[in-house]
Amino acid sequence: MSQSSIENRLANLELQVTRLHEELSSIRRAGKDWRRTIGAFTDDQGMQDLLTDAMRLRESDRERARSETDDNGRKNL
């Protein structure tokens, strides 16, 4: 194999490693975003109201699903 060919292959490998490193770094940075927001709305009354309403709606969905099935979990016709 010629010296030129080896140098080209090495240059291509170095470029690929650099790109992979940059991609991995950006994924790691993006992965932390959701952790920074944990607890951000803990004392927010609007968020508490929203969660309360959401839980109320979810429970009504559960009750409706229960009424649409028999004791064995089969749908009532």
Give a nutshell description of this structure.
The protein is an all-alpha fold and 77 residues long.
Helix-strand blueprint:
Elements: H1 3-31, H2 33-36, H3 45-67
Q: What this model shows, in words?
A:
- The chain is mainly alpha-helical and 77 residues long.
- Helices cover 73% and strands 0% of the residues.
How many angstroms separate the termini? 76 Å
β-strand percent reads under 5%
Radius of gyration from the alpha-carbon trace, in angstroms: 28 Å
Unreliable segments of 5+ consecutive residues = none
* Average of the residue pLDDT scores: 86
The biggest beta sheet, please?
A: none
The ordered string of helix (H) and strand (E) elements is: HHH
Work out the helicity level: over 70%
What general outline do the C-alpha atoms trace? elongated
- The helix count comes to 3
